[in-house]
Amino acid sequence: MNVTIRGQTRHYRTVSFDAPENAVVLIEQRLLPHTFKRVKTRNYRETAEAIRSMIVRGAGAIGATAAFGLAQGARSFRGRNLQRFETHIATVYTTLKESRPTAIDPVNAMNALLQEMAKGQSVSEKQDIAFAAATRFADENVEHCRHLGDQGVSLIRDGLQILTHCNAGWLAFVDIGTVTAPLYAAQSAGRAFHVYCDETRPRCQGASLTAWELAQQGISHQVIADNAAGFLMSRGEIDMVIVGSDRVLGRTGEVANKIGTYTKAVLAHRHNIPFYVAIPLSTLDWDLGSGLEIPIEDRSEDEVLGAWGVLPSVKGKIGKRTYVRIANPSSTARNPGFDVTPPELITGIMTPLGIFKPRDLKKLRGKIG
Ligand code: MRU
């Protein structure tokens, strides 16, 4: 996506790889929207830590980061002993996989790499294959988002008022984004529409990241408190909901996404508002048979008990990034990071290959891959 800072516009990918330095290049998303900064992780452990600490976040983006992290780990191996190499790769895989549990994209991405790497005969062949396969995964992620734009653009009519939750934009993928792809395509087609960004407590990805992306892109939008959506729906001020997902069960059509998504789906159903989920193919999980089996990340209670922000700027200099305590000092908190929305509340799953009823995904497994 193009980013304009102090009048200078440049195109960036959220995740890329510096091959000569064997480093993964990421945008420090925790500092947005106040500071735009890119960072490099120098080894696979640093890459896993960047995923865990949410320097990089969003299902597709952590998928590409894990793919590059596996290639980075493979390329850092010295020697020719294949058995030792495989043991090393198993450690790299597990370290990256364990960095965040709910999104399936990192697992799908790394499994695709391992499948390709199995074709290599030597350590150096496997290292080259890993790098090529990670690059392909990242490029495919961009292509999937582009196709999502083609699939979804006709839904974005002139004058539409759209609600979105969390961030499934450019920053959550390698480029473009899933929810944002149809919006950007509709903008290119000259349509005018308005987006309500749920602030998405506790980490506020909607208020900080989606709102920043839409502002960069010049799309009309407003941030709303998570609790405001029902009121706006009841007044006819929301015509459609589009969200992303961290894992869609191909067998059941259940959708795991940022906490609060299920609430919005219930509200949309109550008000007869279409509810869409936009995903690349790497978000599909064909193994699990029930949403109850999806590992839901339990996050730190500090995220609920307080909030991060910046202090007012002084003499034009951006204020210091600070955590403030909001809740009663002696209270504790519970902080599930995701929830699961059942198929009957979902109008359609938007994929690069078409828009499907959630329960029809399984019939289309052959086509979807
Ligand atoms: O905790 P995050 O910010 O990594 O959350 C994941 C997500 O980005 C959202 O759940 C999003 O809606 C899924 S689409 C990438």
Helix-strand makeup class: alpha/beta
The CATH homologous superfamily of the largest domain corresponds to: Translation initiation factor eif-2b, domain 2
Mean pLDDT: 97
Overall tally of structural domains: 2
Please give the CATH class of the largest domain: Alpha Beta
Rg for CA atoms: 20 Å
Sheet having the most strands: 7 strands, mixed
Query: What small ligands are held by the chains?
Result: 5-S-methyl-1-O-phosphono-5-thio-D-ribulose
Shape: globular
> What's the total count of β strands?
18
CATH architecture of the largest domain: 3-Layer(aba) Sandwich
Spatial order of strands in the largest sheet = 8-7-6-9-12-17-18
Q: What is the helix/strand order?
A: EEEEEHHHHHEHEHEHEEEHEEHEEEEEH
Give unreliable regions as ranges. Answer: none
Summarize the model shown.
This protein is of the alpha/beta class and 369 residues long. It has helices spanning 44-52, 59-75, 82-97, 105-117, 123-152, 180-188, 205-217, 229-234, 261-270, 302-305, 365-368; strands at 2-5, 8-11, 15-18, 23-27, 38-41, 161-164, 194-198, 221-224, 240-243, 247-249, 255-258, 275-278, 284-285, 306-310, 321-325, 338-341, 348-351, 354-356.
Structure description:
The structure is a single chain. The protein has 369 residues and is α/β, with parallel strands linked by helices. The protein has two domains: 2-146, Four Helix Bundle (Hemerythrin (Met), subunit A) (Up-down Bundle), CATH 1.20.120; 155-298 and 334-368, Translation initiation factor eif-2b, domain 2 (Rossmann fold, 3-Layer(aba) Sandwich), CATH 3.40.50.10470. It has helices at residues 44-52, 59-75, 82-97, 105-117, 123-152, 180-188, 205-217, 229-234, 261-270, 302-305, 365-368; strands at residues 2-5, 8-11, 15-18, 23-27, 38-41, 161-164, 194-198, 221-224, 240-243, 247-249, 255-258, 275-278, 284-285, 306-310, 321-325, 338-341, 348-351, 354-356. The strands form five sheets. Strands 8-7-6-9-12-17-18 form a seven-stranded mixed β-sheet, with helices on both faces. Strands 13-10-11-16 form a four-stranded mixed β-sheet, covered by helices on one side. Helix 1 (44-52) runs antiparallel to helix 2, helix 2 (59-75) runs parallel beside helix 4 (105-117) and helix 4 (105-117) crosses helix 5 (123-152). The relative contact order is 0.12. The mean pLDDT is 97. The site of 5-S-methyl-1-O-phosphono-5-thio-D-ribulose has 16 residues, from helix 2 and strand 11.
